[in-house]
Every structure is written in structure tokens, then in C-alpha cells.
Write a structure and sequence with these properties.
heterodimer, A: two-stranded antiparallel ribbon, B: mainly alpha
Chain lengths: ~475, ~200
């Protein structure tokens, strides 16, 4: 391979976020405990700056640089902007929570920013190597963030479980990639795709590699049968970290699926479609049914995330530009809903108290009608009740499944969504129809309050622009081919 | 059988044996030592593939540094093996079934013709002055510069994570502050007490 001096400009956002993370790391050492908030505000400023920078270097045509390892296209820009926005909300919600629990340290935000860099690398990866390294950068930051409360044995256990299972999944992914490399002779995604196009699609080694790649991917997004870590990690991790895991990394999961399966292995679509049908169906079924039995809201949201991953896969498995676009829309809406729901748990928690049992939501309407209303919006959207964005997200993925001539799958997913509606509606019932057991007033910073309100109202306020956003999603997907 | 093949099978057998022992042996120190053996045999295989630099790096870095540190850690930790093995029998049937199925399926595919020696053409002899190290370095710092930087970022994350998770200041430990010790003035160190001399009687 001949070497061309790379054009670094398209990677400016990555370089900026990483440099800022390093700067915050050093600066934080010289800050006194009283000025710790400076690290926080610098982190938020970094995310805002990265968004501006991404908009600035964005081009209509895809740019490939670093010798075919890095691609800056619409999809990458879209995912990066989504990641900045959601991470901004996530950090804003977590500030008071972290301060109350002695976790408000510069390293927390630095690790968070490293995770963001990992997501960005995955979003604009055009090479198996960069895809994998971005994934490891993100995962490593997440492991450390989960274990951040070192004296909590639940958190340490969750981190350990996630770490061991994550390592196995990375091993599977790598093994699959090595098989694909062996057959196609390249690690560059576009070349892999071209090489597979020249081969017969039932080449047994390709399928062999594909199976391992899919297992690794399914683990990373937490889809059945690789979902066992999800409830334990969401439950064990400090709520602020669960909030982070449940949002931005899901966009990274989407990038992984799209870059690997669609960008690189699209000629094998016939094979991965069947595998994804099974994974999606099982995820929707197990996620929605087991969630009913949970009395801890973090665990309930964990199972709900498993079922949402099933729905998200519906769009991918319909293997068409329309399906991928609706998957992108779904994952974006899911990340927003998830941020809002965990944000609400954080808002109701206070020093020494975690509002993580369903019981803690009992009679929320008497304590604060406004918060009860926001939570109701979030739950309705999660369940997919019509006037919310969650409904459109579900509608679009199911539509794409119907377009792919899998009517039975569409019917099954609607039925499972109805089963799932039960446990979301139960939260609403607890808030509005039960009496409050305690009357502690809700106190939280004004910025978190305002952002959470905006976050929840977004799910209903976005309705007039659903078509525009969907068109943006489709544009992002079109830039891929 | 050629001599080269004999060596290959020798290293291969030792590698598989050592790797199996790593996960089956009861004593963690022995497991670590078997891992050393596995690394050395893998380095032997790499040498046969003419990847001298990687082979030497594997021995120097992994066997020489990482595993020694690892052994220290294993010896320091008091690992309770009885507790680790709790529930092992309970999960054995299902875990064993999955493992056997997985290995059988992999064996069917990996032993097919597609992985036969006929499918793998001889890469051909390298020219006399070929330097493995130089080629690796050239690739690493030009074409693969971007992944190389990301790998560095991963290492930095690991350092930050390790320090953030383990460093804490304990108030009850007694320690010396060298800066304060050095900055001391002579009169702070010796206090001259003026007093009248005492008489003995």
C-alpha cells in the first residue's frame, strides 16, 4: 500500500475533543475542590465546540483520508452531532448526582470525553481496525466509569461483569473480522465489500466470519441472546453512568452495525438478515416480557432497552436504504427517551437516596404535577403511543419490515409492543392513581430542570418536523453507498 | 516429514497443551507459568513465519515484563479457589453443551478443504537484506498512523482509569513530606534553650 500524507482537516473534531480531554485532565490537577465545576463547564464547552467544528468541516461529498481508514460523510457527521448533543444533556443531568456522591471529579468527565472520541472514531471508520479500536476506546471508558464508585460493591461487580463479557465479545468480533480478512485479503471496508461481491455468497468461511461478527455486535448493543449483562450493569452502575451507557453508546452501536454489515457485508445480506430476524424477535419478546416482572426501575429500563434494540434491528434487517434510515431515526429517538427517563430518576434522587424502585414514583403527581407530566410523556413515547416521537419511530421500522415482505414479523413486533406497553403504563398508573408515601420536595439545579423539560417535550414538540428529520436520516444513509 | 514441519508440529503441540493447561490447572501461579510457555511456543511459530521482530517482542514484552508483573500480582492476591469454584457443577451441563457444540461446529468448518494447505500459497522467499523490523516500522508510522494514535489514546484511557480507580488519599496513614523536610531552616530544627547552668550541690 502506498502512503499518501493524510489530510487531517476532516478529523479536526476528533483531534479537538481528544486534545481538550487531555487539557482538562491536566488542568483538573491544579483546581481546588471548590473550582471543580470548571472541569465540568470545560467539558460542556468542548462538546459545543466540537459540534461547531463538525458543522464547519462538514462537506456534502464523502471525504476519505488517513489511507482509507477514516471517512467523513453525512452519516458520520449526523451521528457525531447526535452524540455531542446527547452527551451534553447526560453530563448536565449528572452534575448534582455526581457531586452528592463524591464522584464529581475531573477524571469522570475526561473518561466520558474519551468515550465520545471512541464513538466518533466508530462513526467515521472505514477500516476494520479503526472500527475495532474505536469500540475498545469507548468500552474501556465505560468499564472505568461504572467502577468509579469504588466503595460500592454492586458497581464494582457490574463493572467486572461488563468487562469480562465485553472482552469475550471483542474477541468474537476480532475472530470474525480475521476470518473475513483471510477470505477477502483486505481490512478496508469498501474493498472487503468489493471482494465479497466477486465471491459466491454461500462461501462457508464468509458465513463463519459473519456469525462471529454478528455475535460480537449483538453483545455490544445488548440484544438477546447476548443480553445477560444489560440488567446487571444498568442496575449496578451509578444512575449517572447508566444514563451515559443507555444513550450515546447506542449511537455507536448503530455506527458499528451500519459500517460493518451494510458498508462491508451487504452482499451477504441474505445471510445476516435471517440471523437478525431471530435476534430481533427474541430481544423484543424477552425484553418486553421480563420487564413486566421488575420492581426496580433501572432494571425495568434495562429490559426495555433490550426490547428497543430488537425494534432497532427491524430496520437494519429489512436491508434497504429506507430501513436503515428508519433505524437511524429509531436509535436517535431511543437515545433521547432514554436520556430523559434516566434523567428523571436522577432528578428524583438526592444525597443518600436513589429513586430507583418503582415505588419511589408512587404519587409523583401529588408531589410535582410537572415532573409527573414529563415522566408520563417519556413513558408514553417509550411505549409508542401515537402523538409521540416514539410512535413514529416504531411505525417507520415496522413499515420498513412490511416493505421487505415480512408481514408476520411486523405483526409479531406490534403484539410484543402491546405487551411492553403494560409496564410503561404501570409507571403512569403509580404516578397518577396512587398516593404518595413521602412528601419530600424535589430539588435540582435549574439547568437540569430546564434541559429535562426540553428533552421530554422534544418527544412531542418534534412532530411537525418528523418528515424533515427522517429526510436527514435518509440523506445520511445515502452518503454511505 | 521435513524438519521444518517437525518443528512446526512440536511448537504447535506445546502451544495447544500449554493453553489448555492455563485454563484447567487449579493453581493460578502454575496457570501464569503455563501462559509463559504458551507465549514462548507462539514466538517460535512466529520465528518460523519470518516475523523475527514480533517473535522477539513477544518474548521480551510479554514473557519478560508483563508475565513477571502478573506473577507478582497473582502471588500477592489471596485468591480463594473454593469460592471461585462454587456453582461450577451447576453450570457445567449447559456450559459444556454450548462449548462442545461450538467447538464441533468450528471443527467442521476449519477442517474443510477451504482451510487446506492447497488454499494457502507459499508467500515466496524474501530478499536477502529484508528487514522485518524496518518494514513494520514503516507501515506503522505511515499507513497505520491513525490506528496507531488511537491505540495510544486507548493506553492513555487505561492509565487514567487505573489511577482514577485506585488512587485515594487516606487521612489515617502517616507519611513524610520531603518538600517540607528540605525547606526547613536551621533554627527550626534546633531550639537553643537559654538557661543558667545548674550547680551540683
Amino acid at each position: 500500500m502506498s502512503f499518501v500524507t493524510p489530510n487531517m482537516m476532516p478529523a479536526a473534531p476528533e483531534i479537538f475533543v481528544f486534545s481538550m480531554a487531555c487539557a482538562i485532565l491536566v488542568l483538573d490537577l491544579f483546581l481546588s475542590e471548590r473550582l471543580r465545576a470548571v472541569s465540568f463547564w470545560l467539558t460542556q464547552a468542548t462538546l459545543a465546540g466540537a459540534a461547531l467544528l463538525t458543522l464547519k468541516v462538514m462537506t456534502a461529498a464523502p471525504v476519505i483520508t488517513f489511507n482509507g481508514m477514516f471517512v467523513a460523510d453525512r452519516l458520520a457527521d449526523f451521528l457525531k452531532l447526535g452524540t455531542y448533543g446527547i452527551t451534553f444533556f447526560v453530563f448536565a443531568y449528572s452534575r448534582d448526582y455526581l457531586r452528592d456522591r463524591g464522584m464529581f471529579r475531573g477524571e469522570y468527565f475526561v473518561l466520558g470525553l474519551f468515550g465520545v472520541v471512541g464513538t466518533m472514531i466508530m462513526a467515521s471508520a472505514s477500516h476494520f481496525l479503526t472500527l475495532y479500536l474505536g469500540l475498545e476506546l469507548l468500552s474501556l471508558s465505560l468499564y472505568a466509569m461504572i467502577a468509579f464508585q469504588r466503595d460500592s460493591s454492586v458497581a464494582t461487580e457490574a463493572a467486572m461483569k461488563y468487562f469480562v463479557l465485553g472482552a469475550i465479545a471483542s474477541g468474537m468480533l476480532l475472530y470474525g473480522m480475521s476470518m473475513l480478512y483471510g477470505v477477502t485479503g483486505s481490512l478496508e471496508i469498501s474493498m472487503v465489500s468489493a471482494a465479497i461481491g466477486r465471491m459466491s455468497p454461500d462461501n462457508v468461511i464468509l458465513i463463519f466470519g459473519l456469525v462471529f461478527v454478528i455475535s460480537g455486535l449483538a453483545f455490544k448493543i445488548g440484544a438477546v441472546p447476548f443480553h445477560m449483562w444489560v440488567p446487571d450493569v444498568y442496575h449496578g452502575a451509578p444512575t449517572a453512568v447508566a444514563l451515559f451507557i443507555g444513550t450515546a453508546p447506542k449511537l455507536a452501536g448503530f455506527a458499528l452495525f451500519l459500517r460493518l454489515l451494510v458498508g462491508g457485508l451487504e452482499p451477504l445480506a441474505g445471510s445476516w438478515q435471517t440471523m437478525l430476524v431471530i435476534i430481533a424477535l427474541l430481544s423484543m419478546a424477552i425484553g418486553n416480557i421480563v420487564a413486566i416482572a421488575q420492581d426496580n426501575i433501572k432494571r425495568m429500563l434495562a429490559y426495555s432497552s433490550i426490547s428497543h434494540m430488537g425494534f432497532f434491528l427491524l430496520g437494519i434487517l429489512s436491508a434497504g436504504a429506507n430501513g436503515y434510515g428508519s433505524s437511524l431515526f429509531y436509535i436517535l429517538v431511543y437515545a433521547i427517551m432514554s436520556a430523559g427517563s434516566f434523567g428523571m430518576i436522577i432528578l428524583l434522587s438526592r444525597a443518600g437516596f436513589e429513586a430507583e424502585r418503582l415505588e419511589d414514583f408512587r404519587g409523583l403527581n401529588q408531589r410535582s404535577p410537572w415532573h409527573a407530566f414529563l415522566m408520563m410523556l417519556l413513558m408514553l413515547s417509550m411505549a409508542g403511543v401515537p402523538p409521540t416521537a416514539g410512535f413514529y419511530a416504531k411505525l417507520l421500522v415496522i413499515q420498513s419490515v412490511i416493505q421487505a415482505d415480512m408481514i408476520w414479523l411486523a405483526i409479531a413486533s406490534v403484539l410484543l409492543a402491546v405487551i411492553g406497553a403494560y409496564y410503561y403504563l404501570r409507571v403512569i398508573k403509580l404516578m397518577y392513581f396512587d398516593d404518595a408515601t413521602e412528601q419530600v420536595p424535589i430539588r435540582a439545579g435549574w439547568d437540569a430542570q430546564v434541559l429535562l423539560g426540553f428533552n421530554a417535550l422534544l418527544l412531542i414538540g418534534v412532530l411537525p418536523w418528523v418528515g424533515t428529520i427522517m429526510e436527514l436520516c435518509r440523506q445520511a444513509i445515502r452518503s454511505l453507498s | 516429514m521435513e524438519f521444518k514441519q517437525l518443528i512446526f508440529y512440536f511448537f504447535g503441540t506445546v502451544l495447544v497443551f500449554a493453553a489448555t493447561m492455563v485454563i484447567t490447572v487449579r493453581n493460578p501461579v502454575k496457570a501464569a507459568l503455563f501462559l509463559v510457555l504458551a507465549f514462548v511456543s507462539a514466538a517460535g511459530l512466529w520465528l518460523m513465519l519470518q516475523a523475527e521482530f514480533l517473535a522477539i517482542a513477544l518474548v521480551l514484552v510479554y514473557v519478560g515484563a508483563v508475565m513477571v508483573l502478573f506473577l507478582f500480582v497473582v502471588m500477592m492476591l489471596d485468591i480463594n479457589l473454593v469460592r471461585l469454584r462454587e456453582g461450577f457443577g451447576e453450570y457445567l451441563p449447559i456450559g459444556g453443551l454450548v462449548a462442545v457444540l461450538l467447538v464441533a461446529e468450528m471443527a467442521i468448518i476449519l477442517s474443510s478443504d477451504r482451510f487446506g494447505p492447497a488454499q494457502m500459497p507459499d508467500p515466496g522467499a524474501l530478499p536477502a537484506g529484508h528487514s522485518n523490523t524496518r518494514e513494520l516500522g514503516r507501515q506503522l508510522y505511515t499507513v497505520y498512523a491513525y490506528p496507531f494514535e488511537i491505540a495510544a489514546a486507548i493506553l492513555l484511557t487505561a492509565i487514567v482509569a487505573a489511577i482514577a480507580l485506585t488512587l485515594r488519599r487516606r487521612k489515617d496513614t502517616k507519611y513524610q513530606n520531603p518538600a517540607q523536610q528540605i525547606n526547613i531552616e536551621p533554627r527550626e530544627r534546633v531550639r537553643v534553650v537559654k538557661m543558667r547552668s545548674e550547680r551540683k550541690n
